[in-house]
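Private note to self, pasted from the team thread so I don't lose it. Backbone tokens:
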């Protein structure tokens, strides 16, 4: 029997790997619903769904290796990063799914959440007030109208798999839906600013780099508390706190 590997586990969800199969256990079945509906619609390589028996979704492993990891230098080639950009562009050009995803949250709600998190970070002494204030200022550029695209919604660099210079799979679609295309590009390059040029080159169309940088700050400010409360370390080298410091 294959060994059971715990890929991620916290109070909201867990992912286990058994051989070439991943078992995703999620307390919120709506997230699994989105994942099951989004993957067949996405014009990019996605995992094959093996079976579903709530609260468990079983999917096949995709070939290749992750494009990178947050907090670690990526060994993938510039061409692989460009290929990731091209794949994301194909996704963004696809017909819209009929629901809103994480990247399509209302500006009013997003701004309210951001202000609340900034206050919490400063009041509890988690981050220096000047660091929070500077990144809150940078984040302001993300609050602008956009044309909705089919977005992944959680396009972390570890969710994109490549074999050489080819994208072989994009995983974890539970936050997919209509949203801001630049949010996807920002999450893909979070902590890997040096790869942004390769991604944009592969994406193949002009993008507002200030908005991408704004999403880096916004995403990091919003997630520091959640990560800390769910067993992750946002202050590890190269992770969210370092992303915030890089804006100073």
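Design output:
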């Amino acid at each position: 029997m294959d060994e059971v590997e715990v890929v991620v586990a916290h109070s909201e969800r867990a992912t286990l790997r058994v051989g070439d199969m991943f078992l995703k256990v999620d307390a919120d079945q709506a997230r699994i619903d989105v994942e099951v509906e989004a993957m067949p619609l996405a014009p990019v390589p996605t995992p094959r769904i093996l079976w579903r028996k709530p609260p468990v979704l079983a999917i096949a492993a995709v070939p290749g290796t992750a494009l990178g990891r947050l907090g670690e230098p990526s060994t993938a080639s510039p061409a692989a990063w460009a290929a990731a950009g091209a794949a994301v562009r194909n996704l963004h050009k696809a017909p819209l799914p009929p629901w809103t995803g994480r990247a399509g949250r209302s500006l009013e709600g997003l701004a309210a959440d951001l202000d609340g998190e900034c206050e919490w970070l400063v009041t509890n002494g988690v981050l220096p007030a000047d660091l929070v204030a500077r990144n809150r200022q940078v984040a302001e550029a993300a609050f602008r109208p956009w044309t909705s695209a089919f977005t992944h919604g959680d396009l972390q660099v570890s969710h994109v798999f490549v074999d050489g210079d080819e994208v072989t799979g994009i995983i974890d679609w539970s936050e997919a839906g209509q949203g801001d295309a630049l949010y996807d590009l920002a999450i893909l390059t979070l902590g890997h600013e040096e790869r942004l040029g390769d991604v944009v080159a592969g994406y193949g169309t002009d993008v507002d780099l200030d908005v991408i940088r704004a999403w880096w700050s916004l995403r990091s400010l919003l997630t520091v508390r959640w990560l800390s409360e769910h067993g992750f370390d946002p202050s590890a080298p190269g992770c969210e706190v370092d992303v915030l410091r890089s804006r100073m």
